[in-house]
Amino acid sequence: MSGLSFDELVTAAALGVSRKGFTVTELDGPAARYTGAGDPGDPAAALLDAAALLTVAQRAGIHARQEFAVPADGPAGVGGGELELSVRGARLLARLAGLDQRGELARSRAGLLGDLLAAMRDAGYVLPAPLLPGLLDAAARVPALAPLVAPVLGARGRWLAGHRAGWRQVAGAGPARGTDGGAAAGPAAADGGPDAWRVGTPRERRAYLAGLRGQDPRAGRELLAAGWARESRQERAELVSALARGLSGDDEEFLEKMLSDRAGEVRAAARRLLAWLPGSAFSRRAAERAAAVLRLEGGGAGARLIAHVPPEADKAAVEDGIEPRSPVGWVDSGAWRLSQLIAGAPLADWTARFGLAPGELVTLPVTGAAAIDVRAGWRLAAIRQAGAGAAGGNAGDPELTDWALALLGADLGTVNRPASVWPPDTALADLLPAGPRGARAAALLAAAGAHPGHPQAYPARAELASHPVPWPAVLADAVLDAMAHEVLRPKPTVLAQAVVETAGRGMPATGPRDYAAELTRLAHRMPQSWMPEVHAAAETIALRRAFLAELR
Amino acid sequence: MSDGPASLPAMPARWSADSVLALAPDDASRRAAVTLARPGQWGGSAGTLGDLVWGLCAGSGKNPYQVIADLTGPTCKCSCPSRKFPCKHALALLLLWSAGTVPDQREPPDYASAWQEARQARARKPRASSGTEQAASPLPHGSPGPAGVKDEAAAARRAAERAGRVADGLTDLREWLRDQVRAGLAGTGPAGTGPGGAELMAARMVDAQAPGAAAVLRGLAVSSGGALGRLLSEYALLHLLIRAHERLEQLPEGLAAVVRSRVGYPVGRDDALARPAVTDHWTVLAVRELTDAQVPGRRIWLRGRETGRRAMLLTFAAPNGAWQDPGTARLRPGEEIRADVHYYPGQPELRALTGLRHADPVPAAPPVHQEGIDALLAQWSAALEQDPWLTTWPALLTGTPVPPEGPGTPWYLADGSGAALPLADRESLWTLLAVCGGHPVTVAGEWHPDGLVALTTWHGNQAVTL
């Protein structure tokens, strides 16, 4: 017979031995041979002695689980064929991204981290294993990072990501690189074949449709049309947007039908695509309405625009997406209708019809409406047209560049209107090719740097924050020149504060000029109060340079 | 670790940045130090000569702070008002030095040499002053000879008094434990809440100079609401300790030492250092941060490269964050130090301290002698035979971590034979999984009866702290 077990002792001890008493006859297991060592005189002591014996016997007798099956799913060639970032590179990455010892990302560094990851991707490097959990966590928390983390995960990182739901999404966020081998990417691969369309997640279905459109636009449209009635409201809107790939006049009939869809999102998506088809009936209607609201009168120095704002939006226009009333924060409904109607025509229509360059058109006096509402329409048209160009694969239209530069030059002050009715300067600047954009940014810096408190400080600040990094030399030089005016100020101005915040990420880390050294030189002449921030920016540049050196 | 300029022969081996940051009193100082460790902050004032490093750090005040560090020790001094030790400026200076950006100088500036001289003077002083005191003290019985005898007699009297206090305290504790079992553990509610609670008993044990017993009781009071089984086990082992203490004179020497150390009799640093030295290249396998205790501490697990022996160094921090033994606190996994290790009395020999250090810590190759899981458990069970109160045992295994199969199941570490042990759940296990990539890796850590705490793994030659 077996003796007393530990559980029986616990039961006895829980109730207490004062009333019921307690005697040990025999103990369970290896402790049995010490049964007699206990104190028989006192039940409490006897119980404690027995419990000590059984506790130690249990601890000493722990057995491992045997014949444990380890899943053999680890990536076969760990590290094989992939360049792993060096230990020094990993340390620099952690330092620059502000990853602390537990791998948590300082949120303000997400942009800089993204730059470093993109550089790794371009050089064909993958993250070293110890950094993977921290960066997968960071990308799960900051969704913008996911497409940048995904390409540098490597086979090991993708395998690891498969173990946690939040990480799996990160691994599926980026287009699989050719060298990565699609097979290793697991269930989140971008193209899962027809199965992805039938049973995939919304993201996978969208990716499949876009892929099919890229190869055979007609097959893609017909696939979508075949199952249209079964799609949910949200799915319909997103899938229609996927038709942007391979968009052509053949899609017009299908999209026109969408204009009477029950769901507003679907109608809006269809309108956006129809507007990108210059020959479509939809675009023709919009262009005619635009021509009716704006005329040119006179010539030469006496030229002016005559705006005619229709008193009410007609029904056909409303069906084509013209909002009859202004959104919140935008007072004049008539002005908003005018802007929308002007935005309906391609910008090239205006230059062709009036025979004037964009730079001349934007400065003409306007009668019948405020000139700024006319320019708001052109701004909207520019943004819309850029979207069409990007979808059609012909970005960088030179005339669009001229229009963007003209519109940016026409309103130098800050316009306090929401972005939905007044695309901001930075959105227009995004339409510029690198050369003109850098030149414009440098000019803004020069204007703002020359005069303290110059109103250009605010546009300059916005441009520094949104200019693509690393900055071109012309901009970086202009930033240094502007800072040379600032060094003696006891406190940083708006412009200097903007530079301090952006220079670490923006200044080129490679190239003929050592911007870290230049900033350090400036910092030595600065007052204590804000010198450390300039040093920090210089250090970031130097660390970026060291990091890039590890990618060779 | 950084590829700084080659160090000069006279200079001590450069520490890693990790090793410097291991001295930081808290996370805030660690972050601040990293920010301050830029050459620009120091305006070219930093310099080093031999073991001395100095520099002027721009702070919020008008005058920059004077920061000096002596690498032996290390000891630091800064003119800033911070009460933390070392302060962020001293840490930043050491970081700069570890990055190789502090140039060698021929001569320290006045503030550094003055500090150094004052320290040297102080180091010489105690011997001189105790001599004077002895000479000046009026000796009632004349000759200095009996004074030594008297000291020994006094020490013996003090030891006897202490033993008496401990015995009295433990007798009270024994009766308290028995009372708990008589009344029923279920009825006493969460330990430590009632008037006869474990918290009060812990205070009583502190008074009775039995801090080991006090720590166990405090641990129970903190983890109130635990299962009754655990409570009974802990009570029973305390009771066993008291029973062993009652028979201390009859116990074999090794076991008696274990009982004394578990009860909490102190062993002086000098007494431990007087014990035989084991000289070896000691690899730092793992470092466990002890954050639950009343003061932050650090358990450092060593393994001798030649002797294959295990040793555990223990060090604690003062309330201002200063480590009592910064030379030990700064040891990082993956380093190796050639040193004399002296074991404290007890069995199996584990707790130790370092005596003479023959060289500074250097990066070590990943460890090669690893046991299987069954061998580890055999050692553990043999160790419990020598010390039944043991709860922690060093583990060095090669195995594959396997994430939980479902909710409520633990992680496992499986070795090549198919044996597997549960792993204590920690967020850093994901790092272990990343490093292993589904294949066996070397894992160093601590084995506890309820699971293996993975503390270090190796990614190539690089030790990764988990």
Question: Can you give a write-up of this model?
Answer:
The complex is a heterodimer of chains A (552) and B (466). In chain A, 55% of the residues lie in helices and 3% in strands. Chain A has 552 residues and is mainly α. Chain A has a three-stranded mixed beta sheet with strand order 3-4-5. Chain A has a two-stranded parallel sheet with strand order 1-2. In chain B, 38% of the residues lie in helices and 23% in strands. Mean pLDDT of chain B is 84; it is low at 1-11, 127-145 and 191-195. In chain B, β5 and β6 form a beta hairpin. With 466 residues, chain B is of the alpha+beta class. Chain B has helices at residues 17-21, 27-36, 39-42, 88-98, 110-136, 145-183, 198-207, 211-222, 228-246, 253-263, 269-273, 326-329, 373-386, 429-436, and strands spanning 47-49, 52-57, 65-70, 75-78, 277-290, 297-304, 310-316, 335-343, 351-357, 362-363, 393-402, 411-414, 420-423, 441-448, 451-459, 462-465. Chain B has 14 helices and 16 strands. Classes of the chains: A mainly alpha (552), B alpha+beta (466). Chains A and B meet through α1, α3, α4, α8 and α28 of A and α2, α6, α9, α13 and α14 of B.
Secondary structure layout plus pairing:
The complex is a heterodimer of chains A (552) and B (466).
Chain A: H1 6-15, H2 17-20, H3 43-60, E1 83-84, H4 87-96, H5 110-123, E2 125-126, H6 132-141, H7 146-149, H8 154-161, H9 165-171, H10 194-199, H11 202-215, H12 217-226, H13 233-241, H14 252-258, H15 264-275, H16 281-293, E3 294-297, E4 304-307, H17 315-319, H18 333-343, H19 347-354, H20 358-361, E5 366-367, H21 371-392, H22 398-410, H23 425-429, H24 434-450, H25 457-466, H26 473-484, H27 494-506, H28 515-524, H29 531-549
Parallel strand pairs in A: 1-2, 4-5
Antiparallel strand pairs in A: 3-4
Chain B: H1 17-21, H2 27-36, H3 39-42, E1 47-49, E2 52-57, E3 65-70, E4 75-78, H4 88-98, H5 110-136, H6 145-183, H7 198-207, H8 211-222, H9 228-246, H10 253-263, H11 269-273, E5 277-290, E6 297-304, E7 310-316, H12 326-329, E8 335-343, E9 351-357, E10 362-363, H13 373-386, E11 393-402, E12 411-414, E13 420-423, H14 429-436, E14 441-448, E15 451-459, E16 462-465
Helix pairs in contact in B: 2-4, 6-7, 6-9, 7-8, 9-10
